[in-house]
Design a protein that fits this description.
The protein is an alpha+beta fold. The chain contains eight helices and 18 strands. The protein has helices spanning about 145-155, 170-180, 185-195, 235-250, 260-275, 285-300, 345-360, 435-450, and strands at about 5, 15-20, 30, 35-40, 45-50, 55-60, 65-70, 70-75, 250-260, 305, 310-315, 320, 325, 330, 335, 375-380, 395-410, 415-430.
Amino acid sequence: MATVVIMPKQGQSVESCILTEMKKKKGDTVAIGDILFSYETDKASFEEEAQVAGTVLDVFFSDGDEIPVLTNVMVIGNPGESTDGLQPEEGAGSSAPAETATPQPTANAPASVASQPTAEMAPAEVPRTVSVAVQKTAITSPVSPRAKTLAGKNAIQAETLAGTGPHGRVIERDVQAVINASPKTTPLAKAIIKETGASIPASGSGVAGAAKGADIGVKNPVYASDSELKPLTNMRKIIAKSMHASLQNSAQLTHHLGADARHILALRKTVKKAMRDGYPADITLNDFVCIAVIKALKKFPQVNAHFLGDSVRLFSKVHLGLAVDTERGLMVPAVRNADDLSIQGLSGQLKEVAGACKKGSIAPDLLLPEAASFTVSNLGNYGVEMFTPVINLPQVAILGVNTIVPRPKDLGDGVYGFVPYMGLSLTYDHRALDGGEATRFVKQVAIEIENLEFSL
């Protein structure tokens, strides 16, 4: 019996995944446990293993396609078995053509995978031959979300097209028709079209008639031959969008304060010595800072919160987010119920989620901004003396940890000396917190750091 392999749903927030590499092709023999394909969400990578043995009867998508979760990706069965009715609905993937044919129901799959009519489907009376004429008037047409996404990728002004969808709506096939009827464009040409709104020429001077930057008719001295146009990764787009939204939708400002680091450095020295004698936990300066932050949050619950516009959600537990630098970009996984952990347990959990981020195996739900109630971003290892971290909304604050530098301090009796200070930078949402509250909190973090108790 033929068995469909669907795109898994990795977390409640994940709606689609990118197929990064199809490992098997039609006709290949597979055994249980074989890797069928690899895929990724915006921040994590996964591999799908075969749950049944057999022959690959059909593959419905190619590398690079964006596939909705729970969609049929391929079929495994016995040679000669039919795959009729197992194909995903047309337009399910980013590269699939959006035609007017009625989609077939997806058999042997969860009910949520079954085909349903969508706004992309045109009425039955709309002919399959699509006009690609561009509207030259100032009147704009409504555009479906999928059509808008496809148009954006190909530098097409979708709102100027003649729509063949319901009530003149521009749907995905209208954009695809323009793409098919237009010459290929180089990355430079696409960038110029997106920036200037210029039209795609009927033909180009590049290889096989491809439209080059010089063919667009807009001369921009910025686009010179000594530059390279590099598209953003999916993850970079997500980061850019969330950072821009954070600054646009909140009232952020930052307070800077230093903590005497002599005590915490002594604790770190104690741990290093104990490790040489067989102590199993490598408790870092960041671990000490995080435990101090948790202690301070328990005393200032208004900082351990989410701002929701007309209300504030106060958390009784501390769900600590930690900014992690990876090859794919910045990730902020959450350690749930961090206040229930000992410093040894917290150290282990922080290392575990950071390692999972770097491997690309972190659970997507732990990366949601809502998963953490407060975030710590430590740039001390990079020698940064002061910075302004950006809040991970809807959280109301984020603590930036800076490098340790020597500063003068009154040691008593008129004696001054240089002591190591750790810089702390608290960015907070002024809609949720007043300046006095924020100052008292970051001062409490410093106090906790300077008086942290730790026993091996």
